[in-house]
Amino acid sequence: MAELQTPEGNEPLHQLLTPDGSTAQDELLSLDLATVDPCALYRDLVLTRRLDSEAIALQRQGELGLWPSLLGQEAAQVGAAHVLLEQDMVFPTYREHGVAHCRGVDPISLLGLFRGTTLGGWDPYDRNFNLYTLVIGAQTLHAVGYAMGVLRDDAMGSGDVNRDTAVLAFLGDGALSEGETNEAFVWAAAQQLPVVFFCQNNQWAISAPYRTQSRIPAARRASGFGFSGIRVDGNDVFACLAATREALNKARSGGGPTLIEALTYRVNAHTTADDATRYRSAAETEDWTNRDPLARLHAYLSAEGLGDTDFFADVDARSDALAERLRAGCRALPEPDPTLPFEHTYADMPDDLRQQLREHHAFVASMERSEAPQ
Amino acid sequence: MAELQTPEGNEPLHQLLTPDGSTAQDELLSLDLATVDPCALYRDLVLTRRLDSEAIALQRQGELGLWPSLLGQEAAQVGAAHVLLEQDMVFPTYREHGVAHCRGVDPISLLGLFRGTTLGGWDPYDRNFNLYTLVIGAQTLHAVGYAMGVLRDDAMGSGDVNRDTAVLAFLGDGALSEGETNEAFVWAAAQQLPVVFFCQNNQWAISAPYRTQSRIPAARRASGFGFSGIRVDGNDVFACLAATREALNKARSGGGPTLIEALTYRVNAHTTADDATRYRSAAETEDWTNRDPLARLHAYLSAEGLGDTDFFADVDARSDALAERLRAGCRALPEPDPTLPFEHTYADMPDDLRQQLREHHAFVASMERSEAPQ
Amino acid sequence: MMLSMVKALNDGMRHALEADKRVLLIGEDIGRLGGVFRTTDGLQKDFGEDRVVDSPLGEAGIVGSAIGLAMRGYRPVCEIQFDGFVYPAVNQIITQLAKIRHRSSGAVHLPVVIRIPFGGGIGSIEHHSESPETYFAHTAGLKVVTCATPQDAYSMIRQAIASDDPTIFLEPKRRYWAKGDVTEAQDPPLDKARVVRPGNDITFIAYGPTVDTALQAADAAEAAGHSAEVIDLRSLSPLDTETVVSSVQRTGRALVVHEASLSHGVGAELAARVQHDAFYFLEAPVLRVTGYDTPYPPSKLEHDWLPNIERILSATKRSFSY
Amino acid sequence: MMLSMVKALNDGMRHALEADKRVLLIGEDIGRLGGVFRTTDGLQKDFGEDRVVDSPLGEAGIVGSAIGLAMRGYRPVCEIQFDGFVYPAVNQIITQLAKIRHRSSGAVHLPVVIRIPFGGGIGSIEHHSESPETYFAHTAGLKVVTCATPQDAYSMIRQAIASDDPTIFLEPKRRYWAKGDVTEAQDPPLDKARVVRPGNDITFIAYGPTVDTALQAADAAEAAGHSAEVIDLRSLSPLDTETVVSSVQRTGRALVVHEASLSHGVGAELAARVQHDAFYFLEAPVLRVTGYDTPYPPSKLEHDWLPNIERILSATKRSFSY
Ligand SMILES: Cc1ncc(C[n+]2csc(CCOP(=O)(O)OP(=O)(O)O)c2C)c(N)n1
Ligand SMILES: Cc1ncc(C[n+]2csc(CCOP(=O)(O)OP(=O)(O)O)c2C)c(N)n1
Ligand SMILES: [Mg+2]
Ligand SMILES: [Mg+2]
User: Fold this and answer.
1) Is the pLDDT at B374 greater than 70, yes or no?
2) Per the record's keyword annotation, is Oxidoreductase included, yes or no (chains A, B) (predicted)?
3) Which stretches of C14-58 are assigned E, i.e. beta strand?
4) Which positions in chain A have a beta carbon within 8 angstroms of at least one beta carbon in chain D?
């Protein structure tokens, strides 16, 4: 597969499943296929994509204000998410809908942020999946701090699989340029923290191609901080799974951080508000669309006789059901109470803020009166 | 020479002058001794050290509020400064007194900042030596921006030695942990800017030993960003000079940035206000004091018969003269005019600030009246 | 000529780029894309990648490099993509950009403009609707200005670029698309407020996005029999106290309107100055209609959270109840 | 027991570390060195390197990691070495620390304390004498408090650590070494101001380093026949408006004293509230004696630049001239 050409040459791109769907050997990555459920992976890839396309449709219908599509990045997200343990903590950006899905976060709750009914939408502790963070790079330091807590809780290197905990922080290629991301690398490396940085290099930061940020592969950034980085084919769900599993195990056992660069592509525009035709060629996008991560696994399943027509039919049915749920669930998302911002700014509301709330209530009530049909 | 041990092993330490003062071959660094004036280097090492010790004395006498001593780092600074061209721009931290001296900045003007008569003390454009920057890392981005200007002025890669310009940014080992420093690396690398980052790894950031920041040699940081880093013996003036000359030439010719790690040691406390006995052993300091960069060059000069007694006598005389100048000059530094902050906050003073100045004048005047002897 | 504020800013920057080759634009997505709001549309095509710079993703880098460029003789115009993303640059802005002239006793001046689309009301997500002006207005060494009309956008952006002081240039993003007449008419100085609607009974003081709201409220108040004068501050630092105070000395009543949170907002400084300079003229305390002391709410709540005509009118009523 | 503020803070933190093993200190040079002001002296020795953490050199990292630690159940107390070095952490403080409770509708609370030695008057160099309180007080979601005495230092630091809200804890560094009596006496709530000197004719409102200055000025004013009441605000966000207003309603005159620059400073918010809530009681406008609208000057100029007794007295005279 044609790699992202960086001026300073390329990092080996580790791959376990070739674009035509056949398995490949890799000198670094190994995956015992007995330990994975390719059908479950495929199902989640399909559901993730459906979640995404349905959200786009809802945005077009005016039900959402905005949606950041993950189209093309399903394998990276589903592969990484499938090797998380319950106790692991995830710090996503705003595009990890597939990880959220695999983590068991109700997909409907992902919509509130983009519908404007909430700034969050779920309890981060319910599924150990943090709220989306919109400030590029900021979450990487939260992951570092959380990992510092894990270390202090002796929840690392104990050998107890139910206890040892890893932190998985997601970031984009553009995020590698933010100072805070690099500080996170400094801290994670110096303290050998149980954190894995999973960078989906989708080759674009809105309109900025990867070369705007760097002339070398993203995976190499880690070497400057003293920990290991690996570049995997981000459209190869097996490679993403294997690399993440290894990195998480290393982290849980006290081996320190890893940077994973999953080389993939943002097939859609940055968000539904963006117009990618202004800065990149249809040919490029076309080229990458042909490296569809789903088709790849579909081919594998068919070739291996793992997925029969019933299986694929079942997946489609689940997909339709999900779409149905999303359409209904989105419209059913509760309107936020005007009290909400006042209630959740502090643990207990200061007197002057309470006074502001009273005035606000009075005002909102008066509006409702005046808007009431005469 | 015993190197700084970092957990992840060591970078080769490039050296051209051994501790006993004999020249050494290096596989990477080369220096045609015909192109350097060892006597001038020695003179500047001595004057730099005298400047420093005199400032410490002035602080003890209460003439300065504070002084950050460079004792032990003379070779790194003098070696780097000696290969600067007039048109090159320097962005120091707060400890580059030796670079300032070699650059031709009047050493007396270095004292004002620490005496409290000014926040600056010299015109950065006079000698292309920026004011000291106290916010760790901040100056690295200024160097990057200045280099972007150099590039846009076609003052790079033209082959004209009077035109091609490089930017030399100094930083400490602790500064490598600040996000802004790493952003500077991102920008310099992506745009192949004519900037050299000269990191004096004096192994301490106040009380934080280098291992608090990183487990690998500082020079390796550059590899994570896609440019070259080199670790040189920071107490070897020849090695520092050779590495900096090469890096500056590379920058001027359009070859992009370099990170130089000059491995040295902060022999004194962080500043005169610090108490190093609280966090490091006398033995460690002792050990490094024995690797005195001046003694090394002195031995070389004597062995090579380059410095006769007259020469050393002359250097001592200049040193005494400098000390004399500093003692007198420090006390003669003009008291700042109360108007100063008001005058220099904006290009032209806004009306309300002018009003504040009027009130301030009236107040200061009334104070002088009331303090006048009755 | 009728132009949107976006087009007026674009023309103003084009004008500046043509007039002075040391002027340079730098920011995320401002080149090929023309900025997420298209404010710099077409400028990279016409002035090249060296003068309209698509930067790496780092706000500290944008402002820090602008400082270095300015030291080299350039006049950089930075774009921060949204109000909520200026904070990674705050260290460079507050400790360096604002202080270097003072630090150097005037030897170094930094003609750097930082453009920030600000304010809410566009139904966006978190960090895309904030009003950070107080942080900058409280920082000595910075000029802070904001435009309310395409005409001011066109003239003020050029004045800001021409200024030798670092200037935070706040653009009221929800007014980006409203059209207004733009001429080459003589413009008031960058640091002067303007009476945009004369009145006799009360003074509404607004800036940026709330000027239009205040004007509409003034018309509504007229109906209720109150003649409101509306002042567009334009400059938040320095503040044109004189224009404000002389108006309030006439009307005896003042009401400040801004989107930023109430406490320690720009309205506080205005109230402090007015109660001081117009002490004997005030018929009622200076009132403030602002965002509340909470983070910016989810967009479904923003209409009621933001100062709006109704809240201005009820505050007006309160003012006259004294 | 007579203690310096430094020792009182040290005892308060020791107390908190003993009482709750989730409490943890993190900052530059706070361990082996005990902090550049020795505020954490001996704590690493007694509580270990995991609970008194010598951090890498990065303020964003200190606050960002504290947020993650808090999410894991810890109660981190961050030290920022000097006021002027908090800015690299401002992005984490304003966009994350202050907003995460609101973002998560209360699901996530962040009991993080950020200790900042602040203010001038110690003859130091640039960035070591600043007063950044307004930036934080204007940020909804943060509590901002400051102590003026060893007793308050001892009690307030423990209250701040016990608070479930992120708290900016400002320490008036020029009062670090003055001794005061410290007891286990019941303390007022963290968010309440305190009348530290009763008076009848004018109210001096101060906080942190200027409380002592205001008290001395009050004594001097007494001599001139003016009985000044002095209020130590203690909390800058939220503001205890009630204590301030009820005092001014009695005295009819108010004067705010702080080191931060005048414009958009805390004095502005106090003036705005007082002129509103005590409108009919004011005999004179609220006056402000503060730092000027310039960057902090070289230390040789700081005595005259800072609010001092003489400036408070002449402002007092002005107040009585109305
Ligand atoms: C600090 C900050 N600056 C700017 C932005 C605006 N912004 C939103 S997404 C984005 C690009 C991010 O690119 P990348 O990190 O590659 O993630 P991707 O969107 O490709 O998943 C930018 C610049 C932001 N959210 N935060
Ligand atoms: C942003 C910032 N944080 C903290 C400080 C306080 N401080 C001053 S010097 C210093 C250590 C710097 O160490 P290093 O970079 O190694 O330089 P050195 O002092 O060793 O020359 C610190 C933490 C500062 N000046 N700026
Ligand atoms: Mg990307
Ligand atoms: Mg150091």
Assistant:
1) no
2) yes
3) 23-27, 52-54
4) 89, 118-120, 123-125, 130-131, 133, 135, 138, 140-153, 179-180, 183-184, 186-187, 190, 340-341, 343-347, 350-353
Element housing B229 (H / E): strand B228-233
Tokens of C298: 């989810």
Is residue D52 within 8 A of residue D40, CB to CB? The reply is yes
Enter the tokens of residue B108. 């007396």
In 10 A of CB A131, how many CB atoms? 24
Closest residue by Cα to atom 25, ligand 1, is: A135
The minimum-distance atom of ligand 2 relative to the CA of B201 is: 16
Give domain limits for chain A. 2-331, 340-371
The verdict on whether omega for the bond into residue B209 sits within 30 degrees of 0, i.e. cis, is no
Distance from CA of B3 to the nearest CA of A (A): 18
Digit-coded pLDDT (tens) for D147-165: 999 999 999 999 999 999 9
pLDDT in tens, C117-155: 999 999 999 999 999 999 999 999 999 999 999 999 999
For residues B287 and B264, give the distance between their C-alpha atoms in angstroms, rounded to a whole number.
12
**Which residues fall within 8 angstroms of residue C248, CB to CB, at 6 or more apart?**
C203, C254, C274, C278, C281, C282, C286
Chain A CB contacts of D277 under 8 Å are none
Please identify every stretch of chain A with a pLDDT value under 70, giving residue numbers as ranges: 1-5, 9, 371-374
Determine whether the interchain pair C271/D268 forms a contact, defined as Cβ–Cβ distance below 8 Å.
yes
Other CB atoms within 10 Å distance of the CB of residue B233: 30
Number of separate helices (H) and strands (E) present in chain C: 12, 14
Q: Does residue B1 register a pLDDT over 50?
A: no
Q: Which chains touch A (3 or more CB pairs under 8 A)?
A: B, C, D
Average pLDDT of chain D, as a whole number: 98
Q: Which amino acid is at A336?
A: P
| Contact in structure between B88 and B162 (CB atoms under 8 Å) | no
Q: May I ask the CATH architecture of the domain B2-331? A: 3-Layer(aba) Sandwich (3.40)
Tokens of D193: 């101001």
Closest residue on chain B to A184 (Cα): B179
Name chain C contacts of B153, Cβ cutoff 8 Å: 72
